[in-house]
């Protein structure tokens, strides 16, 4: 994913400093992804989660999202997951990464977290298939 | 009951299957053995070979296609000729255009000098290889770049004339393609995706010359000529992946065993239940029925357990997911509800769940009905308890169904209320059918509950109706109490829906209880049609409520996102401008030059004027923006600034401000640039960085900014920066060309959100909206007050006459908000109008009819098994109704098909008219824009399409000959979204055949649109190019307009269908009512009821039939009366004969004996004693009396004898007058002499009246009548008897008139009966004999009588043929 489509706020730098909690939350999500555990992945999720799988997305309730992810993990069982450092997204955090299945090329993943109280909750999960033939990642 | 051996076998199989499940799982969970290096290498080699085979097969398909083209004689002729005349070229292009090509394939024909003679499909640039000497002499295969993000396999097949190559066919197949934006229309494509299952190991393929992007272990893929067409990299099998695959396989096998086990158990329980049911029906005892109920409970439990077991083992989703066509059916991304422990976790699972429920409902209803009709006696406490259970079950089922419908809508991303086509897509269709089957299951369960309540008395109609009403009321009350909806339970429709379910169930129960063999009637054509017409509205009402609820949720989500300022269109547009800048060949050197100039200027070195360098960059920036999609965003202004690394502005472009609406957009934003650049550099980013920031002094309004470095080399530091910005406009402008929907990234809210419109109000004043102004510019004070109190609210509104659903939410207080200030975000969505409801209901009904057809076909074997197909008896009304309905359905279907076709044609025509107008406007603008004297060819080359397009608000492309030379949207060209070569059909029409216009249907991915082409002629009128205008930006509006008309059509058709159903039912009833009455009349006649004539209702053939029937019925009555009369006469004759015989035989000896006694008796002499004289006197009187009585008896016997006697009649011409005279003489002689009470008069015709009769019989007629007249004379009064004859209308009329006492009213009907007499003597046979004799002579006899005045008997005899009066009027 050469494209860096990270909508971040051009606001004061003080607002956009990462904190350790978001990194921990992202690490936990990465572990849940690697285990293919949709329940754990959505334990700390917003009431409605935006899931986009291969360009088709919608905002789902947590219950629905669990079913969608369960089906995704069944069809694309995770072998390994690697997430980048969190980026600042407005009042949230985002991270991109790779998701290896037993099919070959890793899938690209994009995660966005939103803050609710002291917790960082999963708001967006996008999975896409980056192709070798994409020029400059496009 | 099954025998023990069978049970043992059954249990053995069950145990075996049960053991197989854990055994398989155990074996699968064991860690797989380690893979040796040799095995890994072999697996990799096998995978590579598989990929190579697939590639070869792909190329072989291309070669086959090329050979088919090359084999055409026309192709060889076209290559041999030096030049092609127009007709040959046209024929050749026509042949190519007619060639049906597979997707992503193009075919071209080249001469050896690489002149393209014909083509079909997309254009791909020629690779340099083709110019090598000898390249076209043999088959060539190679990989090529088909453009940005596109890879293709190319095959060249030489065409020979004899042994000499004269040209070649080129076939290009795109094998990998990356789309500029991914949405529901555009998807990336990789031909290798479908190979993965067979290859078995992870692999990656790059169809390209160099080994780009792959590791050195990648192996080459060879083409048909041995050249390298790509590289394949196969990952060796990893232990984890291998273990996973093994586990997946064993779990699939375990799932199979589990499903088999569950099925086996269920089959056994079904057998048990069937056996207990048979026993209960035979024994008809409580315990037997209790046993049957127990087996039913077991069956139900097992059935439910089976459903959940299937869910647990992911069956059949596990198997369906591996099949491309069925995978979506079990994909929860379309429908996935966590309600019901997975029962609704996909469309397929929903369908399975309702099928299970429907089967259960059938079994339950069957049990209840059979128990109710099977002689199970119940006391009232049991009935009340069972009734409560039945009603409770029905209520629970209905509630479960309502919840199911709600979540099937709420937890789905399917567009149930889609207007784009009358037929829903496959998954929606499955859901529709599933919900209808669910509704049917509810009706069945309600029917079971009603049958429990009704019991055997349900046979009575009244009980059925009462049960139905009670069910409806109970369900209605339950619906009132159940919180089925997020809002307050509906006060009107939910109870109505529940009552309708109750009524339908009650009616079904009453019907099933009403007679035997009624189980298959619901599977009949009319049964299914009626079921669909009843269930579809019920289901739709529930669905619509949930759809509205989902719409409200989506509106709230959309408002949340809009409030957050996220606009995927703007992000994409900024990214796209940056990509354009990066790929612009002219920009980089210009920027580098500008940077050098700025650097020199800063250092004070001599250089070119700074303004001159900036002007060049400004021009390039303007070109980038005005031709970009960013310029299409009517609600944003665009700006592009080029910065040096130090932050100097090298050039810029910004949209013109609109006077009086807002301040001009700042031309540069150095602060924003520095912040973005710092973040980019600090983050070590690559590629683009697109960010969002709030607009100054505008709360809740965001702008989007993006940054892209300009690098001299791959790893070189940025030599300049491209900074693009999209800033929201704060008020509306006249829109430029709309943003094509096909290029909009997929909306995270789904397709329904595409129709949403957004608006933001600050203190009630509209400050921004997208995509169009769909609401008021100001919010009312009342609405603002409500929002201050409630925070958010949903309202039904009308905007521009169209119904919309609007959501308003007061957004939070921002940093710049003043106290008391209210900012509101409003999101509006179209709300269905009446015709939309009808259209959606039509779609649901159509789905139901499709399912009904399947059920009808599946039901045929069941009905055949039940002996009901072909129907043993079919009512005429049903046959008429069925045919009417078939005609109605066919009419509706045909009207729909033709109507849709007409609408499509009309729409296409309207689109063509629109395109013609636009093409003419573009052409006029081009001519106006050109300098005087510029040739057409130069005009096409020099015109600035971006500027003209922006001025006109029309997207267009320019072609010279067949090649694209310009476009108002160059970005679309670079993204290969515009074809760079005229389609063969267009070139043929415009250039070769001289047509002024041509129109073709194009598609981008799955997005279809129309493109219009207009020929551009030179001064001599020869076409030298073309202008093309696509409907790409307007396609959404065009489709919406067409969808609205289609909705009207099909909504109307649904009404028509319902009206047809009602009218045909009425008509069939009306038409067949007379026949039903006839049938009832015939049945009455058959049953001996002959006094029920059918009322005549019409004067048509049916009315005549009824009249005829009534007449026949009357004749039958008369015939039966005659027959009865004859039977009685015969009986009387027989009796008379016997009586005469038995009486007369002893009478004569008696009379002789008495006379002998009188002769031998010596009268006493004078000397006889008083006793002797007294005895003698007594003797005399007694014997006299005896003789008299014996004579009386003798006369009676004679009378009997004459009645019974069946003498051979001797018919002869007889003069009636003579007979009368003879009878009168005899009467005078025999009777009248003794009883001279009446005087006889004869008034006979003056001429003879000859009739065909038995003279003796006729004479007896008159004698009897005369005797009768004489006896009718009252005592003490003299009377007259007159006999009259006269001719009348070809008959001989004869009357016997007396002046006697007349016949009383009550006796008149009986006087001709044999046993009737008012006299004390005689047997009353006289008049019976008279009637018989008259009728034997072909005559009739009637009478007129008046009490106290006398009686007239009137006889008519047909005159004999020889009589002169015969035949005269």
How many β-strand runs of chain B? 31
Q: Given the structure, what is the number of helices of chain B?
A: 32
DSSP E strands of chain A, number: 7
Reading the helices and strands of chain A in chain order gives: HHEEHEEEEE
How much strand content do the residues of chain B show?
A: 15-25%
What is the distance, rounded to the nearest whole angstrom, between the alpha carbons of the first and last residues of chain B?
Answer: 89 Å
- Specify which chain pair forms the largest interface: A-B, 52 and 78 residues
**How would you describe the shape of chain B?**
elongated
The chain-level structural class of chain B is alpha+beta
| Distance separating the two termini of chain A | 8 Å
Query: Radius of gyration of chain A, rounded?
Result: 15 Å
* Proportion of strand residues of chain A: 35-45%
Provide the low-confidence segments of chain A as ranges: 1-18, 132-138
In terms of structural class, how would the helical and strand content of chain A be classed? alpha+beta
Helix content of chain A: 25-40%
Write the layout of secondary structure elements.
The complex is a heterodimer of chains A (138) and B (1369).
Chain A: H1 20-35, H2 38-43, E1 45-53, E2 56-61, H3 62-75, E3 80-83, E4 87-89, E5 92-100, E6 107-116, E7 119-128
Chain B: H1 4-29, H2 37-70, H3 73-80, H4 86-98, E1 105-111, E2 116-120, E3 140-147, E4 150-161, E5 164-177, E6 189-190, H5 196-199, E7 203-206, E8 219-222, E9 228-234, H6 239-283, H7 286-312, H8 317-320, H9 324-327, H10 347-373, H11 380-410, H12 426-454, H13 461-481, H14 493-513, H15 525-563, H16 568-583, H17 587-603, H18 610-626, E10 636-643, E11 649-654, H19 670-682, E12 689-694, E13 702-710, E14 720-728, E15 757-762, E16 765-770, H20 781-790, E17 792-799, E18 802-810, E19 823-830, H21 834-865, H22 876-929, H23 936-942, H24 945-952, E20 957-960, E21 963-967, H25 970-974, H26 984-992, E22 997-1004, E23 1007-1017, E24 1023-1030, H27 1035-1086, H28 1101-1160, H29 1170-1204, E25 1211-1215, H30 1216-1232, E26 1238-1243, E27 1250-1254, H31 1255-1272, E28 1279-1288, E29 1291-1298, H32 1326-1336, E30 1340-1346, E31 1350-1358
Parallel strand pairs in B: 26-28
Antiparallel strand pairs in B: 1-2, 1-5, 3-4, 4-5, 5-6, 7-9, 8-9, 10-11, 10-14, 12-13, 13-14, 15-16, 15-19, 17-18, 18-19, 20-21, 20-24, 22-23, 23-24, 25-27, 28-29, 29-31, 30-31
